[in-house]
Design brief:
This protein is mainly β and 292 residues long. It has one domain. Helices cover 11% and strands 35% of the residues. The termini are far apart.
């Protein structure tokens, strides 16, 4: 029996949430800027996360494929219109669930192929947070001594990897996924005007297709990511040493936030396309190229 099944049911409060017409100490534009970044544009905010990735196939048990670890480094700049430019880049690595080593290659248990692992290198990942009457741009929940800021992003758009051209790497001509975030903060910190940036903890769930480098083609199924983390008090200095060393040796620009706004944003799919098209990424280790 699942341990969850032994817990008594929790009844949600019987109240209807209504968006207030005036900002409150938590439902406040500047409060969310302080949570996500800082009111000081020279101060960088590093959100670190760690978690797991499971595969789900129709009518089959879930499979723990990877552990997942990474960070987003951000700078927040208030523009002339009072909106917030969220200037960020992010990276992540896939780890062996048993040894916790950073994976460079991976033996795909579905195909039997050994494939080269491509870390997440997304630069930029920029967003504009609109200031609409001083209210928070995202949903807010009052949790007593704490507040939660929530983002539910459901994604559906033409895949950068159309199957006609990238059949081995693409599940569908449409990218569909979901990114679900919660940012948890102490209301006491939000009430402290001396803090341009406030401490925060996060939870993150993602649903998405097979990663291109897994070479799963159009096999039915999806990936489920579940992670937790926090804004690091001392920024990149607080990252795990092996992760920081990996970034320093591979792409050190990820240890600092972007200085200015740019588009388009990078994703794992657009980055993979650039790498495979340019020949910078080889899908399989040398001894297994004949299998690709």
């Amino acid at each position: 029996m699942s341990p969850v099944a032994t817990l008594p049911p929790v009844q949600p409060p019987q109240r209807q949430w209504v968006k207030p017409s005036k900002p409150s100490p938590i439902d406040n534009f500047e409060s969310f800027v302080r949570v996500r970044g800082s009111l000081d544009p020279t101060q960088e905010a590093v959100y670190y996360w760690t978690g797991s990735i499971h595969a789900q196939e129709p009518e089959k048990p879930a499979r723990h494929l990877f552990d997942f670890e990474g960070f987003n480094i951000a700078r927040t700049v208030i523009d002339a219109q009072g909106n917030c430019q969220l200037l960020t880049r992010e990276m992540a690595v896939y780890r062996d669930p048993e040894t916790h080593e950073i994976l460079k290659t991976w033996e795909n248990p579905y195909s039997g192929k050994r494939v080269n692992v491509l870390p997440v290198w997304n630069d930029p990942v920029n967003n504009l947070l609109p200031n609409q009457g001083g209210l928070s741009p995202v949903a807010v929940t009052d949790l007593g001594d704490k507040a939660s800021y929530s983002i539910d992003a459901f994604l559906s758009y033409p895949s950068p990897l159309p199957r006609q051209t990238y059949a081995a790497y693409s599940q569908s001509d449409t990218y569909q996924g979901a990114e679900l975030f919660n940012f948890y903060v102490d209301k006491e910190d939000l009430a402290n005007p001396a803090l341009p940036s406030v401490p925060s903890q996060i939870s993150w769930t993602r649903l998405g297709p097979w990663l291109p480098w897994m070479q799963m083609a159009d096999r039915p199924g999806q990936m489920v990511y579940h992670a937790r983390g926090a804004k690091l008090e001392d920024g990149v200095k607080d990252l795990p040493q092996d992760l920081r060393d990996f970034v320093s040796g591979q792409q050190p620009k990820y240890l600092s936030a972007p200085e200015r706004w740019s588009r388009p944003n990078e994703t794992s799919w657009t980055y993979f396309k650039k790498q495979i098209d340019s020949g910078s990424y080889q899908a399989n280790p040398p001894q297994e190229k004949e299998l690709s």
